[in-house]
Predict the structure of Histidine triad (HIT) family protein.
Amino acid sequence: MDSCLFCKIIAGTIPATQVYADDDLVVIEDINPGAPVHLLAIPRKHTVNCLDLTESDDRVIGKLFRVAAGIAREKGVAESGFRVVTNTNTDAGQSVFHIHFHILGGRSLAWPPG
Ligand code: 5GP
Ligand code: ZN
């Protein structure tokens, strides 16, 4: 998708601080962190949001959670607690329409969120 910000980051045409990459996923630091640890786990395949997923995406989404847990351990927030969340459409505040999962931790996170 030529016009998609995260496709450009994945292609390397827009810079980002990458903390993990494999054939299916990249994990980058959020440019405007909302917590001491705020990363974005992004499947390489352009998918709008979770409403756009099909069965063929099941393997990558499952792997994404396992990778997110490993990174949370590496960042030292696994024991204290962290959140993996994906925003879908307007009421949830989705602003980039390429599916991504926020990995948030390093402080107490309110629930339910505002
Ligand atoms: P959403 O609002 O769609 O759930 O999350 C989009 C996230 O992308 C936001 O947390 C925002 O700070 C982050 N973001 C927006 N533009 C950029 C960018 O150019 N680089 C990086 N690394 N993150 C971005
Ligand atoms: Zn995209």
